[in-house]
Recover the amino acids of this structure.
DNA sequence: GGTGATGTTGCTCGTGTGAGCATTTGCGCA
DNA sequence: TGCGCAAATGCTCACACGAGCAACATCACC
């Protein structure tokens, strides 16, 4: 009997959702009472036969957001739908848009916003509307001025975000990673750098992205690391980087020596921050997203549906 | 204003469809009146942002079926949903199932059912339930007894369909295509063959599939044609075959000489039949499906969603 | 075969929602 | 500035629908 009922529920669902018939009409067609039809439809829904998707670049997955808030220590989660998305680029664009939206609606409005840099953050800056806030000062929290032709992207990101909020941008005039520890100590000791780091460590909110640990990493692209060095980090357990610092799946620094040569705020500053917004999207960033959320590096996660499910452990 | 409205309609849709909130509740959250929310939802639906799919192996696409009935001369159309289908095999299986269902529900129950043979038809025979009808006699309408190890599939199909309907199967003891015209004439003249052909030409209903014109054709597979011969047929405009006869996109015989050596009922028998059910599924059969429907070779089409859209000319 | 437990069916009632209409708002144009 | 038109808004009404309940069928078990 259950088998016939299942088939009937499908026939009913077709008439209900595709043909917009009333349950009563469906009852007439299928020779059922109107209540039976209602129950069949409820059954079809409960069995997951009815899939309702909101196909729109700005659609979100509220149910996943709720699950994230409930099963992690995140105070907030923004999950963009991946319905109808083919490319990773589109996914990143959607996520960046969502991050811009979130930032715009953030209350209280941060006085100082600490930001990292990268493709994702840059896209966020472009998606922000002019006047998204009034008087937010932006400060870079990790090094990374131009080593290559990508010149100025990091700076442009900070300046754009600040400019669109009628605020000022404070840049961190330092490479991301230095070759020698004492050089790093020296540059950190420099007043112009130290002041920025102090400012960054005391920001009222943070906005940062994450990099995956592979040859496509932004740090490799920018010339701070070689593909081989990253491969070695992966061998040591690295899943990706946050503000230039490589972490393993437990959120721990993978290579203390390398980390010592990395310029930027400490991860602890993020861990203790009241508002730390991580923007992470794309299939290659599932592991790092998991590590970031799992180890409490952010209070807010802005991501795509698939990454969110990976964080929740729903994928296999 | 339209832009904000679009965004609002998405937010409303999320709350309505994902969170099962009432329009009134949504109004409270978004600071809108309950009527505005209703209008936003209607707008979201009208704009196609809300996609409702019935994910089930036996789900059909009634709207496409209706369009087919309206814009072609088909008396009936069965279109199975391709939602959640990954492989062509699954699509064919779903379509075969639907064909079996249709045949079971066919009224008046045919006294004699003319059938072709092939992978698809064989699958239909397997999907038919025992006792799907009572006393239907099955007759093969085109030649094709075993030339290779696939031995007996054609016969098995006919016998299975007949057996499950407590009827008898009449096999056509002839190859599909003969090498010489006079051999074909001779075999046709043989009483045992002629009787079957006469019976087949007078069947009360037909059930047949179609083959695509490429190297994967069943006729190539069975050894009746070489891949080169098929390629030559394609050059002449062939899009596929029906009951062993290759036709072009207009439904005309492509190669009269070859057709003269093909044993089976004439296409005209199908064109004039009261009930001619074509079962055609899979991405490679779009053209042949189009040709069959366009040239009136069937009165009923059982197919998959994508093929149906191709027949309607919705693809590009 | 009787009896209780469980699931199914038919129904009442209240609520959510869409159609249709009155009213207001916004906007172009004189 | 004022007028007229169109679009958006607020509302009434009717109705489709789900929750909850009573009656009934079904089945296991004594």
């Amino acid at each position: 009997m259950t088998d016939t009922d299942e088939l009937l529920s499908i026939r009913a669902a077709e008439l209900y959702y595709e043909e917009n018939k009333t349950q009563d009409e469906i009852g007439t067609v299928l020779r059922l009472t109107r209540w039976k039809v209602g129950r069949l439809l409820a059954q079809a829904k409960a069995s997951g036969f009815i899939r309702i998707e909101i196909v729109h670049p700005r659609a979100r997955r509220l149910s996943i957001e709720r699950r994230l808030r409930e099963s992690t220590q995140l105070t907030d989660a923004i999950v963009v739908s991946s319905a109808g998305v083919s490319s990773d680029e589109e996914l990143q664009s959607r996520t960046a848009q969502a991050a811009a939206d979130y930032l715009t609606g953030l209350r209280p409005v941060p006085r100082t916003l600490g930001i990292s840099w990268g493709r994702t953050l840059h896209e966020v800056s472009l998606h922000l509307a002019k006047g998204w806030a009034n008087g937010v000062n932006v400060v870079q929290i990790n090094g990374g001025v131009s080593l290559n032709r990508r010149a100025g992207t990091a700076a442009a990101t900070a300046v754009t975000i600040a400019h669109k909020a009628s605020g000022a941008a404070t840049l961190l005039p330092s490479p991301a990673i230095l070759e020698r520890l004492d050089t790093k100590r020296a540059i950190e000791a420099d007043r112009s750098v130290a002041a920025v780091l102090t400012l960054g460590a005391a920001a009222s909110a943070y906005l940062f992205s994450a990099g995956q640990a592979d040859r496509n990493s932004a740090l490799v692209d920018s010339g701070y690391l070689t593909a081989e060095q990253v491969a070695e980090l992966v061998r040591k357990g690295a899943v990706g980087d946050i503000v230039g610092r490589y972490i393993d799946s437990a959120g721990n620094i993978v290579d203390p020596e390398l980390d010592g040569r990395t310029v930027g705020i400490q991860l602890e500053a993020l861990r203790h921050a009241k508002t730390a917004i991580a923007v992470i999207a794309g299939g290659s960033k599932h592991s790092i997203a998991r590590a970031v959320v799992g180890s409490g590096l952010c209070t807010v996660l802005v991501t795509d549906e698939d990454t969110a499910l990976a964080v929740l452990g729903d994928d296999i």
